[in-house]
Task: inverse folding
């Protein structure tokens, strides 16, 4: 960005230089014509020097830039945005400071967490220069300084954080990084707007172990839910037993209905304890056989007439 800005200023200054030079040469030509004499040469040299000085004094800063002007090596002023002038030789533009919000990516590779797990963390820093004077005078190459400060802060935070906390609480980690980096860069006139942790990479072997752990935890939860369901079913059966305890007729009808539904659906032999037959008063094995044959005949009547019987 700084190189592009310099090219723009250089082009405009070059244009002013040639305009003054051409105007001066036209004046010399109108005064002396094509005759070469000492006065004409002297005026031409003077016009050249004037064009050089004026073009060197003209500077242009873009809308998002501030120019740090030094006079004889000491800080003089901040200029821009737009057109401004300096005194050639005496003044110089030391830095062109970009005052927009800037993003910087930084990483921490193979850094150990608090529970000694190596991780790779990628993050993005959003920052802005609030005081161009401090950014230019208090530190050399503030962009590189911010990058190194961000990396060291990221390593410090990783070393003080458990892996589980890092995976579950990226927002908290980002807030810690923002506070640490902002404290370090505040003396340089730089404000850290936010820090975003993009990704946390862990070794493949540890990923497999964590996957197995998660699967085991899900199975444990499934077994707990199944056991709780069986307990609830048992409680409902207990409540039903209390209902049938003082009403043998209802119990008999319920048992008959369950046996009927089973024989109707399967149309096969159903083995029922003899005590159950006595409770339902089906008359022993003969009564059970008769009931089964009756259901089979009823089922054959409902079949379409195809000429075949089951």
Result:
């Amino acid at each position: 960005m700084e190189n592009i800005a310099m090219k723009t200023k250089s082009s405009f200054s070059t244009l002013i230089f040639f305009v003054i030079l051409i105007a001066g040469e036209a004046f010399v030509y109108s005064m002396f014509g094509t005759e070469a004499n000492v006065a004409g040469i002297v005026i031409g040299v003077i016009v050249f020097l004037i064009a050089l000085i004026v073009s060197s004094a003209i500077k242009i800063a873009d809308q998002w830039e501030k120019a740090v002007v030094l006079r004889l090596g000491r800080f003089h002023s901040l200029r821009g945005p737009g057109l401004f002038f300096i005194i050639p030789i005496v003044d110089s533009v030391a830095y062109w400071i970009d005052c927009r919000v800037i993003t910087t990516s930084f990483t921490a590779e193979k850094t150990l967490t608090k529970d000694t797990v190596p991780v790779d963390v990628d993050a993005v820093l959003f920052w802005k220069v609030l005081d161009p004077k401090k950014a230019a005078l208090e530190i050399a190459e503030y962009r590189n300084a911010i990058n190194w400060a961000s990396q060291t802060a990221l390593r410090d935070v990783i070393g003080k954080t458990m892996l589980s906390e890092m995976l579950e609480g990226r927002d908290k980690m980002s807030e810690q990084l923002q506070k640490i980096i902002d404290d370090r860069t505040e003396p340089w006139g730089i404000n850290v707007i936010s820090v975003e942790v993009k990704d946390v990479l862990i070794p493949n072997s540890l990923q497999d172990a964590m996957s197995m752990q998660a699967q085991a935890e899900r199975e444990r939860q499934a077994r707990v839910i199944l056991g709780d369901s069986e307990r609830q079913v048992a409680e409902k059966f207990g409540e039903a037993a209390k209902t049938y305890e003082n009403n043998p007729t209802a119990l008999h009808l319920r048992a008959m209905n369950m046996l009927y539904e089973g024989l109707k659906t399967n149309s096969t032999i159903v083995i029922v304890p003899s005590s159950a037959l006595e409770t339902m008063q089906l008359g022993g094995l003969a009564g059970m056989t008769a009931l089964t044959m009756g259901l089979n005949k009823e089922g054959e009547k409902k079949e379409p007439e195809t000429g075949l019987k089951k």
About this structure: The first strand starts at residue 58 and ends at 61. Strands lie at 58-61, 65-71, 74-79, 82-85, 91-98, 102-112, 118-129, 190-201. The two ends are 91 Å apart (CA to CA).
